[in-house]
Design a protein that fits this description.
CATH superfamily of the largest domain: q2cbj1_9rhob like domain
Distance between the termini: 51 Å
Number of helices: 15
Shape: globular
Number of strands: 11
CATH class of the largest domain: Mainly Beta
Order of helices and strands: HEEHHEHEHHHEHHEEHHEEEEHHHH
Strand order of the largest sheet: 1-2-3-9-6-11-5-4
Amino acid sequence: MAYWFETSDCRLEDFVRSMETARAADPGSDWTNDNAHGIPIYDCHDLRARLVSDTGRKLLRDDFARTLRHGAGIIVLKGCFEDPDTVDAATAEFTEIMAEERASGAGQGDHFGTNARIWNAAEKLCLRAPDVFVRYYGNEIVGLAAESWLGPNYQVTSQTNLVHPGGKGQIGHRDYHLGFMASEDAARYPIVAHQFSAFLTLQGAIAHCDMPVESGPTKYLPYSQHYEPGYIACTMPDFVAHFEAEYVQLPLAKGDAVFFNPAVLHGAGDNVTDDIERLANLLQVSSAFGRAIEVVDRAAMCEAAYPSLLSHIGKGDLSDDQIEAAISAIAEGYPFPTSLDRDPPVGGLAPMSQADILREALTRGFKHAAFVRELEANTARRAPGIHL
């Protein structure tokens, strides 16, 4: 029995079969008769009327969870925001933030292409306009969707994205965690990590304008989360071609929301209109469990251990594997969470981690003082707070 996926495990016919099997077994939603290619489309006015009871809330939570895990992997929430003024107020704040960041030269490193993006939009909105934030995020349907996948105590982050007329979309991909890695990096994680990665995050998008298909709302491949090697397979040419041939694209109205399993193959579409500035607030809601048990000052550990690591490389008395094991015990090997304003993913899907900086310094033979300067700069970039 294998415990790691290989590229040779990725076969398009298996991928297609996994989706067909899941679709055939999907009984559909108990809460809506409206669906598109298996994706349930909920009327939130009707949902709110039925959520007044605890029983109704539990049944809807079950329905969301079943669809996200065993069904199409996507839920569409029509009229998720009843009051358009709430969405418009947030839009006005986001627009001002974008203008200010553009004027200051901030907001660089957008891995969404040449479009405009606000990193850490949730914190910026909250600090700038707390009452707008409370009314906007005080949405019981959004909260229930997050709870249905992650349980209580989840953590909300968001990035607001503006796609201009003519803006290009994305190739099909999966999302955070393993989806933010190159295929060869994802392959280093055991199969069990590929199985649980999607359970740590819920992806979402709130439409801040009407989005006809021509404006390029997100393209989805329903049921694609069922294919376990998908984090490795999704960028392979035949899988990319299949996605482009078979994706589903749904129009949205201002105030609608979509949530989906991050293992669903998806990608933003091309905005082929002449006049629609497609604006969406992209949510990444994370499990409360994504934390270590102790607070550890790994920057201090890196600074202390660097001379010893460098000396062993010079001596050659430790193998590369031994050096790597020591680095893993010393440094933070994961680049997130970080401040994407100051530490953007330039040239890739993720910024350099603390461990990457340590490896680079060792490879280039930095003196201790030079490494400490790089380490301090990395720590400053990752620090919480907005300093643009």
